[in-house]
Specification:
Strand content: over 45%
Distance between the termini: 73 Å
Structural class: mainly beta
Helix content: 10-25%
Number of strands: 13
Mean pLDDT: 91
Strand order of the largest sheet: 6-5-4-3-2-1-13-12-11-10-9-8-7
Number of helices: 3
């Protein structure tokens, strides 16, 4: 009996030593392999509280330079938003904030968008996504707790609580559902300062392109306002030749070179 107890204790100790923490899981999710270059189009549907829909078409491109990933989103239709572009530089260095620029052709003006604070938490082009949602979140700005496991659309997931160290964000706490087998984000629940559920992101229609698992649909629902926004990606191309570096510039946005 004593030997049995000792064996069980050893197994439990080894399990504790190798158990993944919330931080470990989010770090692995952050390090999931991505293509060097990506190009796609997408339909963006903005659903209002009254039930009406606004449809936008966009072009999306990105390129990984190792120390920085550059991405650009340009609206192509309808006419009133065509040419509007958003350029982002996400840096590999954990403590370095991203650089972001928004070009508005109607005003013929480009402005910087802060990577943190109230401006970054504003609505991205009238959608339920924020500017902050459109980029990467620094791991070091949050504390993590592994809450357990759950299933999302039949996929076993880790359930990780992420709490902002600053506590000043509009949604200072969110819960990520990370696939146990691939560490891909499947769902995310955002909670406001009153710890009330505010928004829910769901990723669906997964496909594998050149070995990269990709969500073709991302829907952000604001459960408090009754609105939602859906990004449906199409014509996805990974590592299909190089993308001109000059496209990832403010000048390219202002000259309408990204098509």
């Amino acid at each position: 009996m004593k030997k049995l107890i000792t064996t069980i204790s050893t197994i439990l100790l080894v399990g504790a030593l190798f158990a993944e923490t919330g931080y470990d899981i989010m770090k692995k999710a952050d390090e999931v392999a991505e293509p060097k270059t990506s190009s796609s189009t997408a339909t963006l549907t903005i659903h209002s509280k009254k039930g009406s829909d606004r449809i936008r078409e966009v072009i999306m491109k990105s390129k990984d330079y190792g120390d920085v990933e550059k991405s650009v989103i340009v609206f192509t239709t309808p006419k009133d938003v065509a040419g509007t572009g958003y350029l982002t530089f996400d840096y590999a260095e954990e403590d370095k904030d991203s650089d972001n620029w928004l070009y508005m052709p109607a005003m013929k003006k480009t402005r910087r968008i802060a990577s943190s604070g109230s401006e970054s938490e504003g609505s991205f082009m009238g959608t339920d996504f924020t500017y902050q949602d459109m980029g990467d979140r620094s791991l070091n700005k949050y504390d993590y707790n592994l809450l357990g496991e759950d299933n999302v659309d039949g996929v076993a997931c880790y359930k990780v609580e992420c709490i902002s160290k600053a506590h000043t964000e509009k949604d200072p706490r969110y819960i990520s559902y990370i696939g146990k087998a691939d560490y891909i984000l499947r769902k995310c629940e955002f909670y406001d300062r009153q710890n009330t559920l505010h928004r829910v992101l769901t990723c669906t229609d997964f496909t594998t392109i050149k070995g990269f698992t990709t969500a073709q649909k991302m829907k952000m629902e604001n459960v408090q306002s009754g609105t939602w926004s859906l990004i449906e990606s199409k014509n996805i191309q990974y590592d299909e030749g190089d993308i001109d570096d000059s496209l990832f510039t403010v000048a390219a946005l202002e000259k309408g070179r990204i098509r």
